[in-house]
Write a sequence for this structure.
């Protein structure tokens, strides 16, 4: 999140992806750094997913990611 | 039960202001309890409504309203009120004085005779600004912007586009409140309409940017006068911003105010290092950018620019000659600022001329090439003449008007030398003007200002921009405190 | 350090005082998109699929990796990303 906020300040549009439980922390951190960074959340957990499940997660997030970068 | 000291009106009788941290208040607490219980005093407690005891006659002044409104500077303070008016007050513990004011005898015989009081919380440095804003009736018209908790407060200024490239002082309410004390004008008075966005600029907006620039409150009237000068049709600030020629407003302050503010008119006068010189000019530029929207890269497309566009302000030094403002019809006793559109200064050296005629010639030589040797009449210039150079003329008894007359004579240009193609240079005035003599500057187009350190046979030339209706003319404004 | 500071707006207030996000890109096709891996396990699988999809949509994809997920990306990595890419996606935090 700090990476994206730093990059935004440096002029590069960005978005970061995190898993569900991170939503509140991301909200708080976003307020704390003073930029409403674009963020997408995917289902938790991540660590014990199979490759197929990770690929599906990526696919499910894809459209939202494109929107976050272009709109 | 303590009553909240909402009001601050003085009631008849004796009011005592205390706080629980003060050793003198602690020393006298038993006595105060006795006096209060017997109806002789009402107590206002600044930090603990149960000090010296919980009672109906102990009022909670933790908001410091009673203390602030009644100018309490020390604790304990006793105030005697008769028919609604204060007739006497005491600070600290002094048996004889307390006995006199209370019209009692033999007070607290086992206490020492006297002990000085402590500072009142209402004048504590860390509370003063907050209280003044709360009770002093200051309301701000500008919007508040919250800096997020993880933001570095200095970076936050840059991140919002409020800086001119250098760090700026965060404009907190307390700082802006202090700055506004530097002027008697109302904070919502409109000072000027700022180009290019033609935004209304209040005294408060000027104060905010003056805080950011690092000004002291006493500089604020000068900053206001600078803005009044440049936001005129004659000065044409919009044109000055939009030209690719890279000129900027230069402010010359005249009058007794220059000494009072500690402005620099001497060594390194056109340089850095003096707070008033540096921050007044900078505050004006910040207003242009933040309020007017006139930023480099936007409307400001200057090819080269110069460092003075960060802020360029100096004081002229008194001399036997009339000063710049007098030349524009003001008296030397008036405080004024003259705004002139110009480039960065160029040094003119002459370390050998003793004779005023000779020095005049060498100054004219330098002035002839101002902006371009090929340009006449269309642009003004400023000559900043140093003390040593000036003395060449004043020692020989020359007046300012004699000097100007001589310079005008020496600055007549043979047009054959400056028409297009002359000397193999394509630039120049139309050839139809050949075979003539034209003055380099229009009447009044050479402004002479005396400033600089006492040693150094140098003067400086500051070339101007286009003058007249299509350009910018110098404007002088009086400074109102 | 953690107190919020309040300041007065020095501008003419014709726009929001909040820090603005950078301008978005026009579209994926023809853009160079950086994928920044925050270096947590399994993130690479996620990013590999994003790379596949983005490339299918006509983007050029560049891959970057943070040295450690425990600290913000160092300034030279950020410079590399912003000078080479039109936009960036960072993943995957859990």
């Amino acid at each position: 999140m700090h990476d994206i906020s730093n990059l935004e300040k440096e002029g590069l549009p960005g978005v970061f992806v995190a898993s569900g439980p991170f939503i509140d922390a991301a909200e708080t951190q976003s307020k704390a750094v003073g930029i409403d960074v674009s963020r997408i959340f995917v289902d938790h957990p991540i660590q014990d997913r199979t490759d197929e499940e990770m690929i599906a997660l990526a696919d499910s997030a894809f459209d939202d990611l494109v929107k976050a970068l272009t709109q | 039960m303590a009553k909240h000291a909402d009001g601050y009106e003085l009631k008849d009788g004796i009011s005592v202001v205390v706080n629980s941290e003060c050793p003198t208040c602690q020393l006298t607490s038993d006595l105060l309890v006795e006096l209060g219980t017997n109806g002789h005093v009402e107590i206002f407690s600044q930090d603990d409504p149960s000090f010296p005891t919980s009672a109906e006659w102990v009022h909670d002044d933790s908001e410091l309203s009673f203390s602030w409104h009644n100018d309490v500077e020390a604790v304990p303070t006793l105030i005697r009120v008769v028919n609604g008016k204060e007739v006497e007050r005491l600070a600290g513990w002094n048996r004889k004085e307390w006995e006199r004011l209370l019209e009692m005898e033999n007070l607290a015989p086992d206490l020492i005779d006297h002990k000085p009081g402590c500072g009142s919380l209402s004048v504590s440095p860390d509370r003063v600004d907050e209280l003044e804003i709360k009770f002093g009736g200051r309301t701000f018209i500008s919007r508040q912007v919250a800096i997020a908790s993880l933001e570095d407060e200095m970076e936050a200024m840059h991140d919002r586009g409020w800086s001119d490239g250098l760090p700026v002082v965060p404009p907190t309410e307390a700082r802006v409140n202090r700055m506004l004390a530097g002027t008697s004008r109302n904070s919502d008075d409109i000072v000027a309409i700022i180009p290019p966005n033609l935004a209304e600029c209040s005294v408060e907006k000027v104060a905010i940017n003056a805080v950011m620039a690092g000004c002291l409150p006493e500089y604020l009237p000068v900053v206001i006068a600078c803005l009044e000068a440049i936001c005129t049709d004659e000065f044409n600030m919009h044109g000055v911003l939009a030209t690719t020629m890279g000129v900027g407003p230069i402010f010359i302050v005249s009058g007794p105010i220059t000494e009072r503010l500690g402005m620099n008119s001497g060594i390194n006068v056109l340089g850095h290092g003096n707070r008033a010189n540096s921050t007044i000019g900078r505050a004006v530029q910040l207003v242009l950018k933040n309020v007017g929207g006139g930023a480099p890269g936007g409307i400001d497309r200057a090819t080269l620019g110069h460092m003075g566009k960060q802020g360029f302000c100096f004081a002229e030094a008194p001399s036997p000659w009339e000063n710049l403002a007098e030349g524009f019809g003001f008296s030397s006793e008036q405080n004024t600022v003259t705004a002139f559109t110009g480039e960065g200064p160029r040094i003119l050296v002459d370390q050998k001329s003793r004779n005023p005629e000779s020095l005049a010639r060498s100054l004219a030589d330098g002035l002839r090439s101002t902006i371009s040797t090929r340009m006449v009449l269309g642009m003004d210039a400023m000559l900043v003449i140093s003390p040593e150079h000036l003395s060449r003329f004043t020692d020989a008894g020359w007046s300012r008007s004699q000097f100007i007359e001589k310079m005008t004579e020496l600055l007549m240009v043979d047009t054959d030398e400056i028409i297009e193609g002359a000397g193999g240079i394509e630039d120049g005035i139309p050839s139809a003007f050949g075979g003539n003599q034209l003055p380099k500057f229009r009447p009044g187009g050479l402004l002479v200002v005396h400033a600089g350190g006492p040693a150094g046979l140098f003067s400086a030339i500051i070339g101007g921009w286009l003058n007249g209706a299509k350009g910018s003319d110098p404007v002088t404004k009086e400074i109102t405190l | 350090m953690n107190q919020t500071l309040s300041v007065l707006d020095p501008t003419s207030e014709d726009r929001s005082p909040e820090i603005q996000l950078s301008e978005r890109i026009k579209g994926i096709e023809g853009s160079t998109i950086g994928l920044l891996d925050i270096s947590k396990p399994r993130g690479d699988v996620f990013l590999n699929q994003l790379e596949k999809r983005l490339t299918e949509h006509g983007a050029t994809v560049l891959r970057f990796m943070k040295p450690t997920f425990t600290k913000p990306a160092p300034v030279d990595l950020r410079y590399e990303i912003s000078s080479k890419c039109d936009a960036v996606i960072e993943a995957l935090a859990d």
